[in-house]
Design the sequence.
């Protein structure tokens, strides 16, 4: 009980010194809890959507394994969704136990365009869905305004799409599908009674949906079967299967339908959850350094107090327990606050999803009992682990320490054993990173990369204090010597406790190492892609959709009819199953193109004749695959085409050099594709290569832009624009990652602030003496700011150097996947280094201000 009282008294006496450590716990726990609440709410919301929309039995085409959700149905490569004959509705309606069978037509291979020629997609990459309005939709939607659509010239849209695009009843929109370009007037607006799944929804009547999406076929993409309630769903499913045939169609009960959709949605959501939790883990790791420093400094400042406790009979265990109890209080307080903040963060993320078109209601906010338990347990455990070493150090303080001045640091030199171990781990880690250059496959090198990152990070954290003297002196010689005596004082302060400086810098090092590593990888990807474009792309223009979906026939026809183009070469995706030499099979995606592809894209061919591969029954294959399977030019490959089910024997006529392919590394000619895939099942191109007539590039571009003006979903790029697009896409991804890493860097900055603030308290008497002998307030503040800058730059040097090593190793694995160029983004590296100095200045503002306000006499009298 005495230990508990002492711990409580000490905790509340030093509560303001622990605020920043508590903030580290709060932020990290909030990120974890917010992620768990947000993903749980998403699951709850979509479970409700699936449950509301499902019927007792669901019927879908057997060949379409992805037709579970009513918001899916993109269909096969030809852009036409798989369907069930309309006669099935009548057959099923006659089955005992069936109250009603309703056919639905749905597809997302549609572009909706308003009168201003703007794409109605809620966000780039989000789908536009077209479906027939039926009783099924009334389960999740309600008619809010106007009337239901009737006929080919009328449509109804969802309220969110109408609000975002300022659409009203009477406005006209265009719908571009595989079967044509349709203009229709809006007759009604429907509101979601559950969540908006993030899509733009356009409704038509049934005949119009069948005309637009199925080419007029009297078919359905799904059939909803409702029971009379006299039989179970499983029994009704068996009855339907007896009528239709067990394997003819995909039959599911409502529970199976909901479970399948939950699993599919959960797979996507779990990736997001793991990514967010990963960044939260990085923030927690950085926070450990902050907490270690806090308790180490508090123990050092309380050396006399702890020595007195030992002198009056407190045991080592009691002192140790006292520090751990303080850490427990800090962890519980920070975790509880973090949980509350995490719920608020989840609500904020829901609002962000709403701005992106996916409306999530706070009524579905799901906070299970496990969320606060996980958050609090995680926060407490991390805090206790971080405080364990300082607690042990406190327990070792002897009663004689009561005779020393408070605040005298204990071991101010980095331990030789620790430094040696850190150096060994660092060298081992760098060796593992270097080993990535010796592997033949990226998958084989992934283990080396992971081990190298872990060992080098751990090693540099351990060896960091031993590097303080060397690196800080070098930085000081460049940056601080010009500030005279103030600069020398700042240097000595940074060198005073290498272990503390190393821990503070290590927190910043982790975040900046990840930033640098990802920057190198991203820049190398862009450089490799642009180099590949320069060396292989012969076409003047590339035509593709902004979200990389397939191009509709109207778009292809418009490009082919453009004046001034000498050639237009489509690249069509063809899914196949190839029989291996050992009798096994492998799913392979081919690119089908006409012979003009050889002129548009220059490939590096290891063996054979690339042009011959585009002739009848020819094929070009990947070099790595050929070597692995022992296949060479002239060999015969049995190839089964998924779209038709037909099998052909194709002759290998070219082997593509590994890593040299611009679009895939397996090719056949369109003549071969057309021989084995009937017209109605042939895929749509996902990219067009176009070349202008000699000397007419400028005129051809103007004509091509004019031809694509009616299709805002399509991008036309020349080679320079195509390279810029790739750079922008990688840049957007990196910016998102940097934004998530900002949490860890913020925690690291808090660590710098905390270290300086506690150092000011620790050096109160020293500061008073310096002020007494003539150091001005301005000089004092400058000294603290310079000390902070040196610590920040020390962490930046370690982090950026380590990150570049990680990035270079990662690029070696990318080189095995066709990205051979190593590009160091020196602009980003230098910018981050300078930014670290700015961070150091900002982190020192409050500690420097507080130090400058100290009363000189009171500071000198401080015990």
Sequence:
């Amino acid at each position: 009980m005495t230990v508990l009282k002492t711990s409580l008294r000490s905790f509340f006496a030093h509560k303001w010194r622990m605020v920043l450590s508590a903030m580290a716990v709060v932020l990290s726990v909030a990120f974890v809890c917010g992620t768990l609440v947000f993903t749980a709410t998403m699951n709850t919301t979509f479970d409700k959507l699936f449950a509301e929309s499902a019927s007792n039995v669901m019927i879908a085409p057997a060949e379409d394994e992805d037709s579970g959700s009513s918001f899916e149905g993109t269909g096969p490569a030809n852009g036409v969704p798989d369907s069930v004959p309309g006669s099935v509705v009548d057959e099923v309606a006659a089955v005992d136990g069936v109250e009603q069978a309703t056919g639905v037509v749905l597809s997302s291979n549609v572009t909706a365009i308003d009168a201003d020629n703007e794409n109605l997609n809620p966000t780039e990459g989000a789908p536009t869905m077209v479906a027939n309005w039926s009783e099924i939709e009334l389960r999740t939607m309600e008619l809010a305004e106007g009337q239901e659509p009737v006929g080919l010239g009328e449509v109804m849209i969802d309220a969110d799409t109408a609000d975002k695009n300022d659409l009203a009843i009477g406005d006209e929109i265009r719908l571009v599908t595989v079967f044509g370009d349709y203009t229709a007037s809006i007759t009604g607006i429907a509101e979601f009674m559950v969540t908006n799944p993030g899509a733009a929804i356009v409704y038509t009547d049934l005949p119009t949906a069948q005309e637009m999406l199925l080419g007029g076929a009297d078919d359905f993409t799904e059939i909803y079967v409702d029971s009379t309630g006299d039989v179970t769903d499983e029994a009704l499913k068996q009855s339907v299967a007896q009528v239709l045939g067990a394997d003819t169609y995909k039959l599911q009960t409502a529970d199976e339908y909901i479970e399948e959709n939950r699993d599919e949605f959960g797979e996507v959501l779990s990736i997001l959850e793991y990514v967010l939790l990963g960044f939260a883990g990085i923030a927690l790791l950085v926070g450990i350094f902050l907490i270690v420093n806090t308790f180490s400094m508090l123990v050092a400042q309380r050396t006399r107090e702890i020595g007195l406790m030992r002198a009056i009979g407190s045991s080592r265990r009691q002192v140790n327990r006292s520090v751990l109890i303080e850490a427990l209080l800090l962890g519980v307080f920070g975790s509880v606050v973090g949980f509350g903040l995490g719920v608020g963060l989840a609500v904020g993320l829901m609002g962000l999803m709403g701005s992106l078109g996916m409306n999530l209601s706070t009524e579905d906010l799901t906070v299970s009992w496990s969320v606060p338990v996980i958050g609090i347990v995680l926060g407490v455990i991390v805090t206790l682990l971080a405080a364990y070493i300082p607690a042990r150090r406190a327990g070792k303080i002897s009663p004689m320490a009561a005779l020393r001045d408070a605040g005298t640091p204990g071991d101010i030199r980095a331990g030789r054993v620790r430094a040696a171990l850190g150096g060994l781990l660092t060298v081992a880690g760098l060796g593992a990173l270097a080993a990535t250059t010796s592997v033949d496959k990226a998958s084989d090198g992934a283990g080396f990369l992971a081990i190298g990152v872990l060992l080098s990070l751990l090693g540099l954290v351990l060896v960091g204090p031993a590097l303080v003297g060397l690196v800080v002196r070098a930085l000081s010689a460049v940056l601080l010597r010009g500030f005279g005596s103030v600069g020398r004082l700042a240097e000595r302060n940074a060198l005073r406790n290498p272990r503390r400086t190393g821990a503070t810098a290590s927190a910043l090092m982790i975040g900046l190492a990840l930033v640098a590593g990802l920057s190198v990888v991203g820049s190398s990807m862009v450089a490799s892609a642009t180099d590949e474009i320069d060396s292989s792309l012969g076409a003047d223009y590339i035509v593709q959709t902004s979200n990389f979906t397939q191009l509709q026939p109207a778009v292809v026809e418009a490009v082919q009819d453009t004046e001034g183009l000498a050639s237009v070469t489509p690249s069509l995706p063809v899914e196949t199953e190839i029989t291996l030499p050992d009798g096994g099979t492998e799913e392979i995606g081919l690119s089908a193109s006409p012979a003009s592809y050889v002129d548009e894209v220059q490939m590096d061919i290891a063996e054979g004749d690339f042009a011959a591969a585009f002739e009848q029954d020819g094929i070009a294959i990947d070099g790595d695959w050929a070597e692995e399977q022992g296949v060479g030019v002239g060999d015969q490959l049995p190839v089964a085409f998924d779209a038709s089910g037909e099998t052909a024997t194709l002759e290998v006529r070219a082997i593509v050099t590994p890593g040299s392919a611009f679009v895939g590394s397996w090719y056949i000619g369109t003549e071969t594709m057309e021989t084995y895939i009937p017209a109605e099942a042939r895929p749509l191109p996902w990219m067009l290569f176009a070349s202008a007539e000699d000397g007419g590039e400028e005129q051809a571009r103007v004509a091509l832009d004019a031809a694509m003006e009616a299709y805002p979903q399509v991008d036309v790029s020349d080679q320079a624009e195509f390279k810029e697009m790739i750079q922008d896409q990688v840049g957007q991804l990196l910016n998102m990652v940097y934004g998530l890493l900002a949490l860890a860097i913020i925690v690291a900055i808090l660590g710098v602030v905390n270290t300086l603030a506690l150092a000011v308290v620790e050096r109160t008497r020293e500061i008073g003496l310096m002020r007494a002998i003539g150091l001005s307030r301005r000089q004092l503040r400058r000294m603290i700011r310079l000390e902070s800058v040196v610590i920040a730059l020390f962490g930046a040097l370690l982090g950026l150097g380590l990150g570049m090593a990680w990035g270079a190793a990662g690029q070696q694995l990318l080189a095995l996947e066709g990205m051979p160029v190593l590009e160091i983004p020196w602009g980003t590296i230098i910018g981050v280094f300078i930014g670290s100095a700015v961070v150091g200045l900002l982190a020192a503002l409050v500690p420097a201000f507080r130090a400058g306000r100290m009363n000189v006499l009171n500071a000198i009298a401080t015990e």
Summary: Residues 254-301 form the longest helix (48 residues). The CA atoms of residues 789 and 838 lie 8 Å apart. The first strand starts at residue 57 and ends at 61.
